[in-house]
Task: structure prediction
Amino acid sequence: MGIKKSSKQDWIRIDRNYLERIALREKLIVEHPEICVGTSEKANPAIRELYEEVMLDLLPKRFPMIFRIKGDMFHNLVTGTRHRISSALLNHASMLRHLAQNVEEDFYFMVPDAQDEFVLQGFIACFPQGLLPSAKVGMSVSDIHKPVPGYEGRLKKGVNRCFERMERGQSVGRLNWAIQGNYSQLFLPFDGANTLKTDDSPCAKAELDPSASFLRAEHHTLTCLPRTGTIVFAVRSYMTPLTQIRAEGSGPTLAEACDSMPEKFGIYKNRPTWGQRVCAWLREKDSGSDKNDVHTSPTTTSIGSCPFAQSREPDSSASCPFAA
Result:
């Protein structure tokens, strides 16, 4: 599964796309509250715990130039917003909205039940891909992962072992990636990021254009909350144009990673619809682009947050799905 120990330093990440992404998250919460925000009696104690952990402690300490607490008010110095900080004065949906309005990570609350199974009971999800969170509420980790090829074998045992062994306060992280063709949306609750489908949708009928397609990478963090024992699944999404990857000389590496997927997993990632064309295009020499003048999608991509390029950030090798 590629799981590694993590820390609070990797839990929340902020880059140069922050303002655009936060504005998009606020818009999505207003337009799609039933998709983005989910609370329940079983999840509410963990929602309060996460809110206090992130908003009262982590953000002001790790990013003091962005977030400050003055009296009973929480101030975001970048967006210019503020709100009352006390969780006693907020309902749980408001806590989730405040989280979404200040950080880019989505959070899913996996609450242990009487059989020690971890069950999805709440969420704040502005950038889901191929997942309608409300439809998964009440489902265990195993039930949610059933569509994954080979999950019922070694993978299921590994996931269960990971959850069972997590100690309170502990965090682990991993990365996931997919090719997303012809569109740069982050909000995809009804469709996966594995691009064109084989149905009659307009997207499926469109001719795939590798130069208009993206690498969608997700940094996943699992954290066992100290008080409630709930495991919070945090997802940070990155979008990088394939044009940028090819211009930087990393196209063949990505193509090799795509080709090396096991057959069933490649089908799960929808590789039959994009694999041959995208991989051939990635291996072509990009003679028409200047590596020092890469054009990116302003609404979805930050050169500084690219999880594929190995020379962008101090922690870029840890963020790159293909780094050695």
